[in-house]
Amino acid sequence: MANVVTFWFVFAHLLLQILEVNAKVPAIIVFGDSSVDSGNNNGISTVLKSNFAPYGGDFIGKQPTGRFSNGRIPPDFISRAFKIKPIIPAYLDPSYNISDFATGVCFASAGTGYDNATSDVLSVIPLWQEMEYYKEYQVNLRGYLGKEKATEILGEALYLISIGTNDFMENYYIFPSRSKEYSVEEYRDFLLRIARVFITELYQLGGRKIAISGLPPMGCLPLERTMNIFSERECVQKYNNVALDFNAKLQEMIKKLNKELAGIRLVPANPYDILLDTIQNPQKYGFEDAAKACCGTGMFEISYLCNKKNPFTCPDASKYVFWDAFHPTEKTNWIIADHLVNTSLAEFL
């Protein structure tokens, strides 16, 4: 079995190398939440941070960067596959400047959502502010490269959007305000209207190649399984059904926008199926545990609860699907990114 797993990863790695051709994409530009945040929360006043060990223990130089993982996150791997650069820097990281951001930049903020009320929960960057940072970036890029070259890069760049999980798991199902105001279907539609407006504004600002992520199997996150104590920590199917329904409606919206906005190339970057398969068949991907996370007890720790003083953190994160109770390990992030590069993002290579 070990030989089969080793062969699979060697084969997949070679396949990813084959795809690392002369890309048609000059930059990767990222919006969203902790699934794609490369460290913007380091620069704001919030309790939701990960710029300390053991986060980043398998990152380049073993440095905690503010990524919610033991290592790299999907945009980093996607950037490498497009042969741009090995990692995507955070816009608020003072160690980078516009020359670094010209080939890729991340505006994402862990804990945020489509809904402004979601970003308020942990005082993180709301999605509208991510857009304002992007507008500021456009001005700086034109000052750095000149209007013509900057406009070309902004038009040919690949825009990655990954957001929405927190709206349900951190907001709707935790606090009563939104659940009293909306049914889950009405809240879904409320979020999708925000997504439509955001994509349309991005298009009006010059974005053409856009990949928007659906929701993952939220009910299979270790934290949700921990709370599901009366069902022996099985995945919470109710939450997975919400994700599937949201993703189906998102797909409909994508089709409509592709017809309405001339020249846009909007694609779904759906992590649901590949992540669920990884969770249900961990041995297939070389994992030993998909129910618990590597950090701490693997049942509830996130952010500061996942720290170097926690004595239970596993010695080898590559054996786990999840790093903390909410976020995948670097290995899982690579599997997700590889899947996306070979499917929805392949047309941009």
**CATH-level-2 architecture of the domain at 25-216 and 241-271 and 330-348:** 3-Layer(aba) Sandwich
Give the CATH H-level superfamily of the domain at 25-216 and 241-271 and 330-348: SGNH hydrolase
Spans of at least 5 consecutive residues whose pLDDT stays below 50 are: 1-8, 14-23
Major sheet strand order:
2-1-3-4-5
Gyration radius (Cα, Å) is: 19 Å
CATH topology of the domain at 25-216 and 241-271 and 330-348: Rossmann fold
- CATH C-level name of the domain at 25-216 and 241-271 and 330-348: Alpha Beta
- Average residue pLDDT: 93
Largest sheet: 5 strands, parallel
> What oligomeric state is this?
single chain
Shape: globular
Structural class: alpha/beta
Write the layout of secondary structure elements.
Elements: H1 2-19, E1 28-32, H2 74-81, H3 98-101, E2 104-106, H4 116-121, H5 127-145, H6 147-156, E3 158-162, H7 165-172, H8 176-181, H9 184-204, E4 209-212, H10 222-227, H11 237-260, E5 265-268, H12 272-280, E6 289-293, E7 320-322, H13 330-342
Parallel strand pairs: 1-2, 1-3, 3-4, 4-5, 6-7
Task: Describe the protein's architecture and organization.
Helix 2 (74-81) packs across helix 13 (330-342), helix 5 crosses helix 6 and helix 9 (184-204) runs parallel beside helix 11. 47% of the residues are buried. The chain has 349 residues and is α/β, with parallel strands linked by helices. The two termini are 34 Å apart. It is globular and about 60 Å long. It has a domain at 25-216 and 241-271 and 330-348: SGNH hydrolase (Rossmann fold), CATH 3.40.50.1110. It has 13 helices and seven strands. The strands form two sheets. Strands 2-1-3-4-5 form a five-stranded parallel β-sheet, with helices on both faces. The chain has a two-stranded parallel ribbon with strand order 6-7.
